[in-house]
Amino acid sequence: MPQLNPNPWLFIMISSWLIYSLIIQPKILSFPPTNPPSEAPTAPSKTSPWPWPWT
């Protein structure tokens, strides 16, 4: 059963995760956020019940 042979696929998976973790992720995280969170408290929105026609 060739799918149980981890010889090429284990190396590809580990190397791709290392590339992502060590190279790509720090570059993405260095960008400033486009919409920083605000410190103002949000008021709860007032909702009204839906008028169902069969009730």
TrEMBL record:
Disordered: annotated span: 35-55
Bias type Low complexity, positions: 40-49
Keyword Mitochondrion carried by entry: yes
Keywords: ATP synthesis, CF(0), Hydrogen ion transport, Ion transport, Membrane, Mitochondrion, Transmembrane, Transmembrane helix, Transport
Subcellular location: Mitochondrion membrane
Entries under InterPro entries matching the protein: ATP8_metazoa (IPR001421), ATPase_protein_8 (IPR050635)
Molecular function GO terms recorded: proton transmembrane transporter activity
A GO cellular-component term linked to this record: mitochondrial membrane
Topology versus the membrane: Single-pass membrane protein
GO biological process: proton motive force-driven ATP synthesis
Residues spanning the membrane: 6-24
Main location: mitochondrion
Listed PANTHER family: ATP SYNTHASE PROTEIN 8 (PTHR39937:SF1)
Family stated for the protein in its record: Belongs to the ATPase protein 8 family.
Name of protein: ATP synthase complex subunit 8
Gene: ATP8
